[in-house]
Amino acid sequence: MDVLRTPDDRFEGLPDWPYRPHYTTVVDPIDGTELRVAHVDEGPGDADPILCLHGEPSWSYLYRHVIRVLVAAGHRVVAPDLVGFGRSDKPSERSDYTYARHVAWTTQWLEALDLQHVTLVCQDWGGLIGLRLVAAQPDRFDRLVAANTFLPTGDRDPGDGFRMWREFSQTVPEFSCSSVVDLGTTSTLSPEVLAAYDAPFPDQTYVAGARQFPVLVPASPEDPEAPANRVAWEELERFERPVLCAFSDRDPVTAGADRHLRERIPGAAGQPHTTVEGGGHFLQEDCGERLAEIVAGFVAATPGARDR
User: Fold this and answer.
1) Confidence band (pLDDT; 50, 70, 90) for 308?
2) 144 and 244 in contact (C-beta within 8 Å)?
3) Is 281 a catalytic residue?
4) What is the number of other CB atoms lying within 10 angstroms of the CB of residue 277?
5) For a Cys-Cys bond, which of 55, 64, 97, 247 suits 212, CB 3.0-4.6 Å?
6) Going from the N-terminus, what domains does the chain have, and what CATH number goes with each?
7) Active-site entry in 182, 251, 258, 286
8) Residue 81: which of 35, 48, 139 has the closest Cα?
C-alpha cells in the first residue's frame, strides 16, 4: 500500500482551529502497512471523553464549533481524522479503502487510546463506522448521539438523495471536498473556511478515500459489508444505554433514518430526540453551537456507567 501524508504547512493558520494534533499508529490488517491517525484532544484529560466522528469528505475541522462550546463547558472532546482525511495518512489507491478496513483502523485507534465511558457523537460515515464500534464494544460507550447518519444493511432503498450523491461523486471530473461541504450546508461559507476543508488534499492524488466512500455504503443486500452491519444491528438492538437522535431538518440524504435508530435501539426509548432547525447535511457547520448544547444537555441529563 502506498501512503500519502499531507504536508503540515497546509494546516497552518486555519480559521477557528488552534488545536494541536496528536498521532497514533495503526497497522493495516491485510498487508501490515503502518498508518498515522491524527486526532485532537481538548479539555480536561481526566474527564470522560466525548468522541466526535466526522464523515465524508470532511475532517475533524467540521467539529470546531462543537469542540469550542463543549470544552468551554468543561468537557473533554476527542476528534480523530479518519484514514484518508484531515491530517491522517491517505492510502493512494481507491482499492485500498474498504468499509471493513475503516472499521479496523478506527477500532485500533480507539483501543490504542483506550477510551472509556465515551459519549459518541457521529454524523454521516462517522455513524457507519461509529455504530459498528458501539456494537462491537458496547461497554466502552456510556451514551450515543446520532446526527444525520445511519447503519445500512442494503435491505432498504437508500433513497434518491443518496443515489444522486453517489452518482455525482463518481462522475464529477474534479472532486472538490470544499464544494461538497458547501453544497451540504445551509450556511454561506467564507473562502477561508472552504480552503480549510480543502487543506488535507493538495491535489487529486489525495482524494482516493473521499472518492471511494460513497460506493462503500451498503446499498444492496449483496454488499460485502451488509452481513456485518446486520450483526451490528443485532447488538444495537440490545444496547440500553442512552441514545439521542439530533437530525437536522434540511438534509435530503439521511432524512427519515432517525426513525430506525429510535425504534430499534432500546436506549433511544423515552429520550428527548431533537430536530435541529436550519441545518443541512453538515449540521456541525450550520448549527455547531446548537449541536454542542444538545450534547452537553444530554450528558448532564443521563447517568454514565460510573453513576449507575
Assistant:
1) low
2) yes
3) yes
4) 12
5) 97
6) 3-300 (3.40.50.1820)
7) 251
8) 35
Cell numbers for 252? 435530503
CB contact at 8 A, 280 and 235: no
Of residues 20, 23, 17, the one with CA closest to residue 36: 23
Kindly report, residue by residue over 9-48, the tens digit of the pLDDT.
999 999 999 999 999 999 999 999 999 999 999 999 999 9
Residue 74 exposed, middle or buried by CB count within 10 Å (0-12, 13-18, 19+):
exposed
Amino acid, single-letter form, for residue 222: E
Residue 251 annotated as catalytic: yes
Do 120 and 149 meet the contact criterion of CB atoms below 8 Å apart?
A: no
Nearest in space to 124 (alpha carbons), one of 266, 257, 277, 250: 257
Q: ω into residue 57 within 30 of 0, thus cis?
A: yes
124, 182, 258, 286: the catalytic one is 124
